[in-house]
Amino acid sequence: MPTRLEAAMDYEKVWGFVAAERRAFGGMLAALSEEEWLAPSACPGWTVKDVSAHAIAHPQHHLRTLLPAMIRGGFDLNKAGLIDGQRRGRAPADEILRQFEVYAEARRLPPMTTPLEALVDTLVHTQDAMRPLGRSYDMPPDAAAIGADRSLAKHQKIFGYPVAGVRLVASDVDWSHGSGPEVRAPMQELLLLVTGRAAAADLVEGDGVGSVRVA
């Protein structure tokens, strides 16, 4: 049965965001030096190249590619993702860029996922790759809000992202979540918080800031 969020969602709009954000991510990757490709990303153990290859693998996944990584990772989703990402990250940078061109508008999905997962993956991994390099990219606030709703509805139950006890309020779109001391920030920073990342300290304010991750 679809969740209430899934039932109400305009998937054509979501797919439009996915395609645009994949193209934007690929465009930024095309400007990287060899050293930047191999630099650490915001994900421990992942290089920028690993994260980028993982992000564009979403429309290429199928059971026979996912199962070996799941087995090697002991069916731990984070470990399996790292194993698969590092394998894909061994591809030449030009091949990864080619995949961003070929699969920008692809609508194939891994088992048990929706276009919402494709959107969250693309939005968040763009930041995982670019922020440690000192490169900035602003997510569309509406897309980030959709991603945050999905992450709170489904992913938090799996990964346990720590955003309880505060009220998250977006400063650039009509969106809020939770109760408690307020944490106010641009929507993209709130998406990063609800997916277990650190928000940019200079963009977050409110009495609840001490209860969330900032950097």
Structural class: mainly alpha
Biggest pleated sheet: 3 strands, mixed
At CATH level 3, the topology of the largest domain is Four Helix Bundle (Hemerythrin (Met), subunit A)
User: SSE order in H/E notation?
Assistant: HHHHHHHHHEEEH
Detail the poorly predicted runs.
none
Strand order of the largest sheet: 2-1-3
Tell me, briefly, the overall form.
globular
So, CATH architecture of the largest domain? Up-down Bundle
Helix content: 40-55%
Q: Count of DSSP helices?
A: 10
CATH class (first level) name of the largest domain: Mainly Alpha
Which percent range describes the beta-strand content? under 5%
> Would you tell me the overall average pLDDT?
87
GO molecular function, one term: metal ion binding
Domain Mycothiol-dependent maleylpyruvate isomerase metal-binding: 19-129
InterPro entries: DinB/YfiT-like, Maleyloyr_isom, MDMPI_metal-binding
Q: How would you characterize this protein structure?
A:
With 215 residues, the protein is mainly alpha-helical. Helix content is 53%, strand content 5%. It has two domains: 4-133, Up-down Bundle (Four Helix Bundle (Hemerythrin (Met), subunit A)); 141-211. It has ten helices and three strands; from the N terminus they run αααααααααβββα. A hairpin with a 5-residue loop joins strand 1 (167-170) and strand 2. Helix 2 (11-29) runs parallel beside helix 8, helix 4 (48-57) packs across helix 6 and helix 4 packs antiparallel against helix 8. The longest helix has 19 residues, at 11-29. The chain is globular. The mean pLDDT is 87.
